[in-house]
From TrEMBL, chain A:
Lineage, broadest ranks: Bacteria, Bacillati, Actinomycetota, Actinomycetes, Jiangellales
GO molecular function, one term: ATP hydrolysis activity
Organism for this UniProt entry: Haloactinopolyspora alba
SMART domains for the chain: AAA (SM00382)
Protein's name in the database: Monosaccharide ABC transporter ATP-binding protein (CUT2 family)
Topology class, membrane: Peripheral membrane protein
Subcellular localization, as worded in the UniProt entry: Cell membrane
TrEMBL record, chain B:
UniProt KW keywords: Cell inner membrane, Cell membrane, Membrane, Transmembrane, Transmembrane helix, Transport
Compartments in which it is found: Cell membrane
Name of this chain's protein: Erythritol transport system permease protein
Species of provenance: Haloactinopolyspora alba
Primary location: membrane
Length: 521, 376
């Protein structure tokens, strides 16, 4: 199944030997990639495979280190997103970039308002043009409505309309469904088919492989910055895609680990959590799971599966709408964060910059922040005990810093993450909860963090960590729980399961869609 | 299917070298201690330009002028470090003076048709409590009702000023020295007393500075203040009661403002409802000159004190060398802006340094494969 080279006449955009180097890292290595008019190409690959880098280059956000771009067979360069847009290549980013306080038409023409001259905006013309765009998409959205009054799916369509308001030839969609419900996905797919019928080429990126199988005409798989496979979607199935994404050595089992789970520590029972971002939606619909002593439980799932919301509910940042969370048999529901920390549950948050670190405080002060009560001597903090505890925490989690007085900003990502982990460990937790603990850190620090998690479990604590990387959950967990769209969809033993099984489980539970791919063994 | 060979991945095994400690140059010291340097420069300039600027008695007098702004600045420092602002302190100065004035003049309780003359210590405590109550209202608006600190305290600025005018009916309470027969003398001690030859106001400033200094550097609460202002989400997740911290910061600020109001009323032995107008701006300026960040998380008692001295000595010095009051305002404004510009410069310097250090400690970027290892 070679990538149909016979139809090259309708190639809109082509990348030839594109290489991108960040610092010393090859994000892309000589990638050839082409997009043909009227077709949807799914760009597939694990996190870090180079998908977003390639899209950024095609959309003018980044410039290639080497290689050439072609537009309709002629050499082209996209110096900026605006430049790419004017040449017909538009991108819709994963996060919505809309101003909720402005109307739909205002958002569509933001930055390139239709003028009457003299700085006055021709609102009636904008409204008329917006109206025609939605007619083209066959979606009746009133251009005069405020974006904040629209449902998320409609907001996504406004983004699409915005991308279409230039003479768009290529539309790049990066995880367009991550915030959509099943029926909204159906609408999006219908719009995509509309667009391809009009000759627009679509580059579709999604972790939901079954979506790709349904909507895409072609598949291109990236791994470690190289194109490892390209095929017509009609010729392939889900298991083929997964095999290409993870490499040849599938089926390999990991050394069984002798572990002896003790009594249940953390019990999550029928927990429901509202989506803090979107009122009226549930992020966690009904989840029960247990973390035992001496056990590392890995929570695997795609973005939007509800992992973060569940863990934040355990830590006390999100309220549970229903259900119970118990630690050592005592309910945590309704308790404040400080009370939960004292009881023995603390969270290493997903976004360390937003939720984990106080940049104005030194490394040492960040480490001790959650455990200050331990250092109280009367009304004052005993700075000597604090310094000793900080020193030992720094060596425990192997933070590499000039000292406890170093600025947080002077540390690498991996060391910053170790500070956040060390802060949680200083509270002497019974259960350590970590959300994507290895996001954006280097390989050495990853290994250190996994080692720390294993050590915690060996010392009798429970560890619950969430990840969207299948490798990680297989390497680091004693037991794997897969979540999808707010539900637990499976429980696996890392000694007997494969990456394919996990990836299929995490993407399979998508409602309202039928997969045309084969069921992987 | 076309399949290209996968390049072997160079894994970043080379661990970073220890980051060497940097030596600080003279220039860096001048930048870091710029508020203090500015104060020294001011003293030298005015010392040369004016014959009696450096007289001990003049220094004491000027320090007494500095005292009430310094006390305001100490409260403001707490609020600004939590990433808030308190515009109501000037009005609280007026309100607490008026409350003290009305009590010293006789507290009419119309229901029983009697007039009470509480002792001075009662007057002081009630006035301070009124200041703390204004702060509590600020805190309530900010924490419970999510009103932006600027707006909440702007509103309280008007409310407290209005309350002061209502209580006094717009008039000034004169002759607050009290009457020995009524047993309420001694109020003037706050403004005019001189224990050990140093004015009471300076003693109070010293005590407040030490207490708030200890609070900020040695207590859990102080650490919470910095964390709340530095990143309230992270602080919250670490179990810091961020709303309680903000509430207390505003209450302490209100209490400091009331203390300043008492000192001024005592000095003048009269209390006018208009007292303290625009004092909030001097307090903010002092805190900012002292290196605090309006974004929160940064600021020291030492800095705020030095800031108050810079502003006070600058004002008095310009008067002594005969600069017109119009030019005084221009110069004061320029000094404030210059201080903040230096602050930005220093922040940029720090960021550049941090970036360099981070690059150094992370020379080997992650290889694009997730090959975490399990260690058992």
């Amino acid at each position: 199944m070679s990538a149909a080279p016979e139809v090259s006449s309708d190639v809109v955009v082509r990348a030839l030997g594109v290489t991108k180097i960040y610092g010393g890292t090859h994000a892309l290595r000589g990638v050839d990639f082409e997009v043909r008019a009227g077709r949807v190409v799914a760009l597939l690959g694990e996190n870090g495979a180079g998908k977003s880098t390639l899209m950024k280059i095609l959309a003018g956000v980044e410039q290639p280190t080497a290689g050439q771009l072609e537009l309709y067979g002629r050499p082209a360069s996209f110096d900026s997103p605006a430049d790419a847009l004017s040449q017909g290549v538009a991108i819709i980013h994963q996060e919505l970039n809309l101003c909720p306080n402005l109307s739909v038409a205002d958002n569509i023409f933001l930055g390139r308002e239709r003028g009457r001259g003299g700085g006055f905006v021709d609102y009636s013309e904008q409204s008329e043009l917006a109206h025609r765009l939605f007619e083209r998409l066959e979606e009746p959205i009133d251009p005069g409505r405020l974006v904040e009054d629209l449902r998320l799916g409609q907001q996504q369509l406004v983004e699409i309309a915005r991308a279409l308001s230039e003479q768009t030839r290529v539309l790049i969609m990066d995880e367009p469904t991550s915030a959509l419900s099943g029926s909204e996905v159906e609408v999006l797919f219908r719009v995509i088919r509309e667009l391809t019928a009009q000759g627009v080429a679509i580059i579709y990126i999604s972790h939901h492989l079954d979506e790709c199988l349904e909507i895409a005409d072609d598949a291109v798989v990236l791994r470690d910055g190289s194109v490892v496979a390209a095929a017509s979607m009609a010729d392939v199935d889900l298991s083929w895609i997964v095999q290409q994404m993870v490499g040849r050595d599938e089926g390999e089992l990991y050394a069984p680990l002798a572990f002896d789970p003790g009594v249940p520590l953390l019990e999550i029972r029928d927990v429901v959590v509202a989506d803090p971002e979107n009122a009226g939606r549930l992020a966690v619909r009904d989840v029960s799971l247990t973390v035992h002593e001496n056990e590392v439980v890995g929570l695997y799932g795609l973005m939007g599966a509800g992992r973060t919301e569940l863990l934040e509910a355990v830590a006390g940042r999100n309220a549970v709408a229903a259900g119970d969370i118990r630690l050592d048999g005592a309910s945590l529901v309704g308790k404040r964060i400080s009370e939960r920390i004292r009881a023995g549950v603390a969270l290493v948050p997903e976004d360390r910059h937003r939720d984990g670190l106080v940049p104005a405080l030194s490394v040492g002060r960040n480490l001790s922040l959650a455990a200050l009560s331990r250092f109280l001597k009367g009304v004052f903090l005993d700075r000597r005990t604090e310094a000793t505890a900080v020193q030992s925490a720094m060596s425990d989690v192997r933070v590499k810093a000039a000292g406890a007085h170093a600025e947080i900003g002077s540390l690498s990502g991996g060391n910053q993450q170790k500070v956040v982990v060390g802060k949680v460990l200083l509270t002497s937790p019974r259960v350590v909860v970590l959300d994507e603990p290895t996001r954006g850190i280097d390989v050495g620090a990853k290994a250190d963090i996994f080692a720390l998690m294993a050590d915690q479990a060996k010392d009798g604590r429970g560890v619950l960590f969430a990840t969207s990387e299948v490798e990680e959950v297989l390497h680091a967990a004693d037991r794997i729980i897969v979540m999808s769209r707010g539900l637990v969809v499976g429980e696996f033993d890392p000694r007997t399961t494969t990456r394919e099984e996990l990836m299929a489980a995490s993407g399979e539970a998508l409602e309202g869609l039928t997969t045309n791919g084969g069921d992987p063994a | 299917m076309t399949t290209t060979a996968k390049d072997p991945v160079e894994t970043g095994q080379g661990r970073s070298p220890q980051i060497p400690k940097r030596k600080r140059g003279v220039g860096e010291f001048l930048i870091d201690q710029r508020a203090f340097v500015a104060l020294i420069v001011l003293v030298i300039i005015f010392g040369l330009l004016s014959d009696n600027f450096l007289d001990p008695s003049n220094l004491v007098t000027m320090t007494r002028h500095v005292a009430y702004n310094a006390i305001l600045a100490l409260g403001m420092l707490l609020v600004i470090t939590t990433a808030g602002i308190d515009l109501s302190v000037g009005s609280t100065v007026g309100l607490s003076g008026v409350v003290a004035g009305t009590m010293l003049q006789g507290w009419g309780i119309s229901l029983f048709d009697v007039t009470a003359y509480p002792a001075v210590w009662v007057v002081v405590i009630v006035s301070l409590a009124v200041g703390a109550a204004v702060g509590a209202l600020n805190g309530l608006l900010v924490t419970r009702f999510n009103v932006a600190p600027f707006i909440a305290t702007l509103g309280m600025m008007y409310v407290a000023r209005g309350a002061a005018l209502l209580i006094s009916d717009g008039a000034t309470f004169p002759r607050l020295q009290g009457d020995p027969e009524l047993g309420n003398t001694g109020f003037s001690f706050l403004g005019t007393g001189r224990p050990l030859g140093i004015p009471t106001a300076i003693w109070i400033m010293g005590v407040f500075a030490i207490v708030i200094g200890l609070l900020m550097t040695r207590t859990r609460f102080g650490r919470w203040v910095y964390a709340t202002g530095g990143n309230d989400r992270a602080a919250d997740l670490a179990g810091v009661p961020v709303n309680k911290v903000r509430m207390r910061a505003y209450m302490i600020s209100g209490l400091c403002a009331a203390m300043a109001g008492l000192i001024i009323a005592s000095e003048l032995t009269s209390a006018a409802p208009q007292t303290g107008q625009t004092f909030e701006l001097n307090a903010i300026a002092a805190v900012v000159i002292g290196g605090a960040s309006l974004a929160g998380g940064r600021g020291t008692v030492k800095g705020a004190l030095i800031g108050a001295f810079v502003i006070g000595f600058l004002s008095d010095g310009l008067v002594m060398v005969g600069v017109s009051s119009f030019w005084q305002m221009v110069i004061k404004g320029l000094v404030i802006v210059l201080a903040v510009m230096l602050d930005r410069g220093q922040e940029k310097l720090k960021e550049a340094r941090a970036a360099a250090a981070a690059a150094q400690s992370n020379q080997q970027e992650p290889a694009p494969s997730s090959s975490g290892t399990r260690s058992t």
